[in-house]
Design a protein that fits this description.
432 residues, alpha+beta, SH3 type barrels, Phage tail protein beta-alpha-beta fold, Ribosomal Protein S8, Chain: A, domain 1, 5 domains, 4-stranded antiparallel sheet, 3-stranded mixed sheet
């Protein structure tokens, strides 16, 4: 299977752009930096360093992050000579080193729950979003499908008491909608969010006698057309004392208000959910993306043959995501071109969603809420709440079988296994 050649990735990783805020105190005269092979060099000024990485500023004002193990011995001696501690040297971590996904998640939550942004009679959507001081992503593919430009003019005045409510008002007036991943505010069309931007959340509900029917009736009064019983994508299942609901982010916000209860927060269990990255794709090439991922994740990233041509260069978009979880960045960037990511012993693979769905892995899960005398209920719950179309009853390839007690054997693709693992972690209240 053809992949992007390793030597090409190494060279590109050396010049992979990592957009950080340069530190004023780190100004140095430009010098020639060379890689360990002596075949590549660049004129750049030192910006900062940590134990494993040096950041340098090229003549075109790019800030580049380079692993030290790829530098020449002369460069390493030069870095060792920079012994005076400053804000951006090892004496104090750089701003990027201080970031963590949990802090970014809390900051985004606080901003959405906080006061609205000052409204204006007319301004572009990107201008409004840039004023919010949060990481954001505009789903260009959904805009293109609806015949909209991402630079459309909007009226941003609103009487809503929170930024969340202001976004509902402003975007809703233009048939747009917002939702959030862990660290990113996402703007898309309302139709796209209702149909495809789905998430599974756990609601703590004190249901008397475990009678879920009354709660389900109340749920179905919220966006009635969004539920499976009338052809929508939404579904719900009781897991006493919880209700587990799969529906769009829009419905979840309305559901929380109607039930007067907040869903349990995700307890993120995958390492890439907790690793923070900066991604900027400007030229639309696979090499540009993989170089940045490899430099920051410190893992090999390969692009499988079926998606390497034509690749991002013909996808028609650029993206800038600074200070977001790696999982969020991968979902948003790759989702624009119907791709996803898989893990292997060597690192990450980027492949099409169709190809990923065909590669099944078998794993065993202990499902704590499963009733040993009624395993069929657990089978139905999992297939209803985790990627329903991916299971055999609905034409997919995935299977789940009872292996005895509370143990189940699941054959599924990695993306669905990640989704199932997240649901179980949420219900357990701890990681798997």
């Amino acid at each position: 299977m053809r992949v992007i050649h390793l030597w090409r990735r190494l060279v590109l990783a050396f010049v992979g752009v990592l957009l950080l805020n340069p530190t004023p105190s780190a100004a140095q005269e430009p010098r020639t930096w060379k890689d360990s092979t002596g075949k590549f060099s660049i004129e750049a000024a030192f910006v900062s360093q940590d134990e494993s990485t040096v950041r340098i500023k090229a003549a075109d004002d790019r800030t580049i992050s380079v692993p030290k193990n790829r530098l020449s011995k002369a460069d390493l001696r030069y870095l060792q000579s920079l012994s005076e501690p400053t804000e951006s040297t090892p004496g104090a971590p750089s701003p990027a080193d201080k970031r963590d996904a949990a802090t970014l998640e809390k900051a985004l939550s606080a901003r959405l729950a906080g006061p609205p942004e000052a409204g204006k009679p007319s301004e572009s959507l990107p201008r409004l979003l840039s004023r919010l001081n949060v990481a954001y992503f505009i789903d260009k593919r959904s805009f293109d499908s609806a015949g909209l430009t991402t630079n459309l003019k909007i009226q941003t005045e609103s009487s809503a008491p929170t930024l969340s409510g202001q976004l509902d008002d402003v975007l809703g007036a233009n048939q747009l909608a917002w939702y959030r991943l862990r660290t990113v505010l996402v703007i898309s069309t309302k139709d796209e969010v209702l149909a495809n931007a789905l998430q599974t959340l756990v609601y703590p509900l004190g249901v008397r006698g475990n009678d879920f029917s009354a709660v389900r009736r109340r749920m179905k009064q919220v966006e009635p057309s969004s539920w499976q019983s009338v052809g929508g994508p939404g579904s719900s299942r009781p897991v006493p004392p919880f209700a587990v609901v799969r529906n769009s982010h829009i419905v979840h916000r309305k559901l929380s208000a109607a039930l007067q209860v907040r869903p349990l927060p995700h307890r993120y269990v995958h390492p890439l959910e907790n690793q923070v990255v900066d991604i900027e794709v400007t030229r639309g090439s696979w090499a540009e993306l993989t170089a940045q991922l490899e430099t920051q994740l410190r893992r090999q990233v390969t692009v499988l043959e079926e998606v390497s041509q034509p690749g991002l260069s013909n996808a028609g978009f650029t993206v800038k995501l600074n200070g977001v979880s790696a999982a969020d960045a991968l979902e948003l960037v790759l989702g624009q071109i119907d791709c996803t990511w898989l893990e292997n012993p060597d690192g990450l693979e980027i492949t099409s969603k169709m190809d990923a769905a065909s590669k099944l892995e078998r794993r065993q899960f202990v499902i704590p809420f499963a009733a040993a005398n009624n395993p069929a209920a657990t089978l139905q719950l999992v297939m209803t709440l985790c990627a329903p179309d991916s299971w055999q009853p609905l034409g997919g390839k995935g299977q789940i079988r009872h292996a005895g007690g509370k143990t189940f054997t699941v054959s599924q693709s990695q993306p669905v296994l990640r989704e199932l693992n997240q649901l179980l972690a949420d219900l357990r209240g701890r990681g798997n």
